[in-house]
Amino acid sequence: MSVEPEDDWNWMIQSMKKYAHLHMYDLSQPTSVLEWMDQKTIFVADSSSPNGSYEMLLLSLPLKLTNSADDQLKLSKDRDFKIVCGGFHQQPVHAMAMVSDQLLLTSSPSDTDEIILWEIKEDEDVITQLKTHQGQRSGMSNAPFVAANPRTDAQVARGSFLENLVVVNLETGKDLWSYEVEDKPCRQQLASIDYIDDCNLLVCNASNGRLRIIDTRSPSSNCSSSQPSSSSIQLSLTSSVSLKPATWSCSVNFHSRHRRVGTDLKDGSR
Fold first, then answer.
1. Which pLDDT tens digit goes with each residue over 99-110?
2. pTM (predicted TM-score)
3. Which of 169, 186, 203, 236 has the most CB atoms less than 10 A away?
4. Which residues in 65-199 belong to E strands, given as ranges?
């Protein structure tokens, strides 16, 4: 189902009306990835490049956005993003995950589900490549998603399809866990991967929006799933996770019509 430009415009106007204060900024290049690093810093990666090098930047938010609500109404010198540090990738970045305050992971299209570990050197204003981890060669170019374990810097989940979903030890490069396919693989493409605690993954099916909670301590058959209602199944499905201490968090499915479905992971209700 395609989205008409007029629908996009109407959705944007209606969204803008819901905010008491709306700040809009321009980025120098089209962006493929925009993720929070912390409360005051974001990561952006270019989606196009005139010379074959794709820029990655850490940007600090303007003080106007991080100040209190009363201070935001006052004049401020720092009204734009500032570059904290940056680096270059030879391919467009598909996904990013923070491993620690100084380490991040990126993935790009490849036939091995390649992920790259980068080090953030704020004192030198650069992001430098440390090592590359490659999976099994699939014979086709895939763009894997990545998620960092919130309890340890050494473990990350990686996968572009449910059938090649693995947990990797960054220090050794070895797979600690992989999804076991009991029947003939049907190549269930993923739209996102998230950790909801140190052992459980939440993955979203790109074609139908089905959510699966997978316990990486157990065989792959021991997993639960939630299926969005038929009215919510659209193109470009994805999910995001908001972690809350000592509770299951809620995930949200976004799709091409700008609607969303919230799911309580404790009982699968919406």
1. 999 999 999 888
2. 0.78
3. 203
4. 82-89, 95-98, 103-107, 115-121, 126-133, 145-148, 155-159, 166-169, 175-178, 190-195
